[in-house]
Write a structure and sequence with these properties.
By secondary structure, this protein is an all-alpha fold. The chain has a domain of 37 residues. Helices cover 40% and strands 0% of the residues. It contains six helices and no strands.
């Protein structure tokens, strides 16, 4: 009989659960290499954002400008901002796990996803 510790390890390795939210991944879900559920993967899908502050732009703003009105009137000190999404669940949880607990297993996947969104070369 396996110890409780090994049972937990086997459950995590063999079960199909999202790497971000830890909820089960449904069999009908779209497969992705990151082992994230459709909800978490969709949350990290790019949306039109202000290139300076990262706030999501409304549909009417997104068609006109890539910079929000506030950044046009008072630009921040940086020229360009790249982001995966809002600092909200599940992204906020992963950042906290990395910063506060040293849990780094999703950092590579998140940085690869972010790197795909950076125009080449990134403006400095």
């Amino acid at each position: 009989m396996l110890s409780h510790h090994w049972q937990n390890i086997m459950h995590r390795v063999l079960s199909s659960q999202c790497g971000l939210c830890r909820f089960p991944i449904l069999a009908a879900a779209q497969p992705n290499a990151l082992r994230w559920c459709d909800h978490c993967y969709q949350y990290l899908t790019p949306v039109k954002r202000c290139q300076r502050c990262g706030l999501s732009l409304k549909a009417e703003e997104a068609n006109i400008e890539s910079i929000c009105g506030e950044c046009l009137s008072e630009p921040p000190p940086w020229q360009r901002l790249f982001t995966l999404g809002d600092y909200d669940f599940p992204l906020s949880r992963e950042v906290q796990r990395f910063k506060d607990h040293g849990q780094i297993w999703h950092v590579r996947a998140l940085t690869q996803l972010l790197a795909q969104r950076i125009s080449t070369p990134a403006p400095l």
